[in-house]
Amino acid sequence: MYQVLYRKYRPKVFSDVVGQSHITSTLSNEVKTGKLSHAYLFTGSRGTGKTTCAKILAKAVNCLHPVNGNPCGECEICKGIESGAILDVVEIDAASNNGVDNIRDIRDESAFAPASCKYRVYIIDEVHMLSIGAFNALLKTLEEPPAHVKFILATTEVHKIPATILSRCQRFDFKRVDSESMVSRMQFIADEEGFTLDEEAALLIAKIADGGMRDALSVLDQCVSREKHITTETVCSVAGLTGRQHLFDLADAVKKEDAAACLSLINELHNGCFDMERLCSELINHFRNLMITKTVKNAESVLIGTQQELDSYKKQSASFTLEALLFAIDLLQNTLTEIKRGANRRVEMETAVIRLAHPALSDDRNGILRRLADLEAKVRSGVTVKYTEPVKTQIESFESNERAENTRSAERTESVNTSPAYAEPQEPQTNEAKPLPPEPETPQAKPTQTAEHPTEDTADIMLEEWPQVLSELSRINMPLKAILTGSVAYIRNDFVLIKSENPTFSSFIKTGRNARDVKEAILRTTGRSYRLGIYTPKAEAEPKEQKKADPLDSFLEKAKGLGVNIQTE
User: Fold this and answer.
1) What span, in angstroms and rounded, lies between the C-alpha atoms of 264 and 374?
2) With CB atoms 3.0 to 4.6 Å apart as the test, which of 18, 206, 214, 374 could cross-link to 182 if both were Cys?
């Protein structure tokens, strides 16, 4: 009868175990020296060799002629354990035998000496599935077992095992098998079985297996059933992958904000019977590879793929900002969760790519940061940025809501001084952050000096701490800080006057919330409370000369006071 590859090529000795030399060397040395523990705990992800090592250890401690800590595989004990004829080595699946009664049976059996072996060995797989009562029943036996009993516990979720059990076992952590070791093992099997395996195809299988040797051999077995010469196309077809080019095409369509192209690609993949959940997972991994390429200096040491693919990653990652990549990964991860519990997987995937292609549709924090990063990149490259209609509508709606809120709170007085050293009363907050109009002059009063119309001895002083103010503002109001980038500020009396070339500055600074945030940032930086205004040069700010009074008008007023009625034409 045909045996699948992962069963046929299951390691028989410690030296055959792939990628776990730090564990196999320790276990073989314990067998050679005879310093064996009464209980072992093997933990790690699936397919890394936990149960295999447990069976090898069970044979090694009972082998009649061990070789360097490994079982000989030729004696009657080794052959009997391998075939299952010897009942002194018991393998229990805790997922289906997790009750108290099952553990009590083990406890009662352990009191009897083994029939044909030196040790009675209990291998309990997926031990984390045992109930609390079963763990309590096992506790005493595990702590002080008879001299002829060995326990080997295996689990993929060690955090679910009680600490009382952990403290009574020798723990061995199995690592994910590295790609090089997996490729080497698959090439060895290919030579033994008489088929050919391309190196790129072997790397792709290793990536799909994600560190599990059993998963890799299962995929390899499927590929062999289809063709004797295994290529990357064979692996993609067997594993149901989308193919690398589709991922690059989807990412390019997202970058160009071409939602129609994204939907067309998804329709093509759906008609080809590609699973939408797997497509979403592969697209997350693709954007992750772009992120790694953009941030890691030597990305080749982290990513797995051909040189041509790595060059494609470098080229495509240069067109994305880091904020856009993080936004895409976050959105797709949320989509993957919705796909698993949603009614229509295709609709969820289509909605996700439309949001990726149109950042203006995302009003959360990550979406806004991505759009700001794109604007900054365009400004740095010298591109003139204009608002699109959706963005303009959002800004107008935002300003309308702000004005309504300020109208409702116009009669309330708010202090922006949060420092105890400057707790003096503040002026009532107005809706607009612009300088107040000059007070009218009277014949007896001297000209009033204001921030809008300073006298000749008042000079504008540049606010040297303005960069620190903008840095503080980034913690309070990031969008406003982006708008004020490149601006300068001047001090004129008790006013801070802001000068900015950004055309949207005046509309943003006139809203009450933004004005309060700027005042707050100035106060935290300088320790003083200022009123806020928009900078205009002194020549433009000087008031126009008042029209001189007509002497005839003064004469007529005096005549009316004396009761004389003078008619004028």
Assistant:
1) 25
2) 206
Q: Which two tokens stand for residue 23?
A: 């564990």
Q: Give buried/exposed letters for 411-434 (b at 16+ CB in 10 A, else e).
A: eeeeebbeeeeeeeebeebebebb
Separation CA 560–CA 566 (nearest Å)? 8
Indicate the residue type of 120: R
Q: Judge whether residue 92 has pLDDT over 60.
A: yes
| More confident: 383 or 340 | 340
Side chain identity at residue 530, one-letter code: Y
β-bridge partners, 41: 153, 171
Q: What does the alpha-carbon distance between residue 457 and residue 493 come to, in Å, rounded to a whole number?
A: 11
Q: Quote the CA–CA distance of 193 and 199 in Å, as a whole number.
A: 17
Distance CA(159)–CA(558), nearest Å, equals 101
Question: Would you say residue 527 has pLDDT above 90?
Answer: no
Cα 419 to the chain's mean position, in Å? 37
Q: Which two tokens stand for residue 460?
A: 């504008």
Kindly state the tokens that stand for 419. 């420092």
Q: Beta strand 461-462 with 488-492: parallel, antiparallel or unpaired?
A: antiparallel
Q: Which residues contact 426 (CB under 8 A, 6 or more apart)?
A: 413, 414, 415, 416, 417, 529
Residue 209 Cα distances to 43, 205, 544, angstroms: 18, 6, 80
Is the Cβ–Cβ distance between 489 and 497 less than 8 Å? Answer: yes
pLDDT of 433 strictly over 70: no
Confidence of residue 396 (pLDDT cuts 50, 70, 90): low
pLDDT at 430: 44
- Tell me what pLDDT residue 153 has: 94
State the DSSP H helix or E strand holding residue 150, giving kind and residue range, or none if neither. Answer: strand 149-155
127-180 pLDDT, tens digit per residue, is: 999 999 999 988 888 888 889 999 999 999 999 999 999 999 999 999 999 888
- Give how far the C-alpha of residue 496 lies from the chain's centroid of Cα atoms, to the nearest Å: 40
Most confident of the ranges 75-79, 376-380, 397-401, 481-485: 75-79
- Under 8 Å between Cβ of 48 and 176: yes
pLDDT band at 425 (very low <50, low <70, confident <90, very high): very low
Could you tell me if 322 and 370 are in contact, meaning their C-beta atoms sit under 8 angstroms apart?
Answer: no
Least confident of 261-265, 376-380, 423-427, 545-549: 423-427
In Å, how far from its chain's centre is CA 344?
25
CB 196 within 8 A of CB 223: no
Whole-number Å distance between alpha carbons of 493 and 438: 14
Spatial CB neighbours of 453, under 8 Å, sequence gap ≥ 6: 438, 541, 542, 543
Q: Where are the beta strands (DSSP E) in 337-442?
A: none
CB 335 within 8 A of CB 352: yes
Exposure of 137 in the CB half-sphere (CA atoms within 13 A): 16
